[in-house]
Each structure stands twice: as C-alpha cells, then as structure tokens.
Amino acid sequence: MNKMQIVKGNEAAALAVRACRPDVIAAYPITPQSPLVEYLGQYVADGDLDSTMSEVESEHSAMSVLQGASLAGGRTFTATSSQGLALMYEPYFRTSTLRLPVVMAMVNREMISPQTVWGGPQDSLTLRDAGWLQIYVESNQEIFDTLVQAFKIAEDPEVLLPINVCYDGFYLSHMSEPIVLTEQQDVDDFLPPYRSKHIRLDPDDVMSVDPLTPGHLLTEYRMRHVKAQQRALDVIRRVDTEYEHLTGRSWGGLTYEYKTEGARAVLVTMGSMTGAARVAVDRARARGVSVGLLKVRCLRPFPEDEIREALQGREAYAVVDRNVSFGWNTGIVYQEIRAAMSGRDVPSVNYIGGLGGEDLTVDMFGEVIDELVGLADGNQPAERCQWLVNPLRAGDR
Fold it and tell me: Does domain 256-396 have CATH number 3.20.20.140?
C-alpha cells in the first residue's frame, strides 16, 4: 500500500530521486536547494540509495561531472538555484545540445541584485531557450510525482533531452505538506533502468563526441533538437497518463484546467501561486462569477495547442506572473501566451507580483478576477501590465 508522509518540498524531491535510482548525483549547495542534496547524501551514507555522490567545488563542475556520467550511459541527477544556475550556464547549455537526459530539480529563487535569497522563477525562466525541457509544479505531491515522471520523459528515445522540474523556493522547498509515496516496485516497473544507445563513451566502441562542428552539421543538430522538443509534448502527455494508471494521480500533463467549462474569463497562473488562485476562483464562482483557472505546467516545450484550446472563445483572460520580461514591460509567461494567441481576438491583461518572496494572497487574486470580469464586460484596463502590491506593504514603496 502506498504510504503518506508529511514532508518539505526538498524532501519530497529527494524521496522521488531515491525511488528513481540514479547512478550519479552531483550538486553544490545553494539556498534554498541545499537540503535536497543533504537528504540525498544521507540516503547514500545510510545505504538507502546505491548512487555515487560526487562532491564538487561549484555548480559548473556539478553539471560537467554529470555530462561525463551521462555520456558513459548513467542515469544522472542534480539540483540548483539562482546564482548556482548562472555559474552553471556553460555546461547547462552544452548538456542539452549534446542531448544528455540529465534530470535537474530547479528550486526557484530570485536573481540578485538587489540582494535576495527568496523564491521566484526568474532564474530558470531566463534560460528557457537553452534547450532544456521545463516543467513548473504547484505542490509537494506534484514535486514527487513529476520528478519520477521526469526521468522517463528525458530518457525516452523520442526525446533524449535534459529536463528541469521547477518548484518555488521556500513556498514549497521549506513548506511541509502531506504526500503519498509511490511504492518502490511500482516505480521500478514504471521506470526501467536507463541504458544510453544514442551517444556513449565506450573504449570498445569508439565514437567522436562534440568535435569542432561545421555549420551544415550544426544546423542539422539544432533542427533535430527542436524536433525532439516538439515530440516531448506527446511524451509528457503519455507519461502523465501512464503514471495516472499506476497511482491514480494525474497533473494534466502540459496544462491543468479548473472550472473552465463555460467560463467567460480565465485566470492563468504557474507554480505555487495556483493554490491561492484556485480558492479565489471558488469564491468568485460562489458569487455567480463565470471565471475559470488555467495552470501552465510545461513551459518548454510550450503547449501552444492546449493554451489556444483553453483560451480561445473566452471574453478575456489574465496572466499573473512572478517574474519580469525586461524590455517588454510584462511578465514572461504573459508574452509566451500572447504569442500562442496571436491572431485570436481575446482581450488580455497581465499582472506582475509576488517578487522577492512576497505573498500573492487570495484577496489579491480576488481583485484580479474582479478586474478580469470588467475586461470581459468591455472595460479596458489602464495599463496592459499592472503591478500587484500586497496591501500590507504598500506603504513601503
């Protein structure tokens, strides 16, 4: 029988990784990711996880170690946050373009400066075009389940790309919630051992890896990489369905809809803020307000078809971002959705808030919904992008 535990988000991630039996783990501690690697180190020390833990001197080294391990045919895992990701940039990009199915937990944290260690997905969103798959989750249970799925997605022969499972620092990483663990035998049946066939360092079968590449071959590599990302859309959907058959739990694959059937307007969120938004939608529905919720889970590859299906024909939609797109004066997710909805005449508005770990409250989402309904009624917002400020902090500006 599957058992329930009350764990913090980082421990939920560690338990999922332990169940997936990686061959090599390499990571460097950084707030708020550090406890995740500490849990994994303890599992290895106690004999509960038969993996090689590589103690490295930096995040750059961590990803470089995993490149070698993955090239040798091993299942690999790492985790990082914020400035650690910045230091990892060179091997991070190389991992995807070498088509190495490394799994990484991204414990989202704001980038400095001004100095901050608090939660926010600006770190991973800034590298959304580095060729990795990126899935953003809402809860500790979704952390566990998505990391188990992530290994199967990344290692699928149709994909063979690295993947980020992104979750909000502190709001999830250090917050305790009940989760149901999947039995080890079920995980073993769901996720067979990984054996690299497309690329492998083997002295008995020599191949050249990453030589100086002429432009016509580089074009071929990029084209195949892009096509693999697009094939990942179907693989993510399929793996989520298979996991539902195994556990009874589905997270919607690429997106998740809540009370959108017949809704005039739709609120769009990503990550842990979705819980407060869902409560606000329930309250609005209780007042007879026709509004639904769309949670974006997969940002890369971008689920264009699902987004269009969920939003076209609505009278308005609003996207709440916990990040900024410099130069556009909007949030990043809003720009992605606007691109997907190009040519479809649906009024939209963007809100930016919750930066630097600030709370996005149910009441704040309630105000967003009220303004969204006004937009559906034909009332144009003063600005395409509006900044949400917690009323308790308004006097600090």
Answer: no
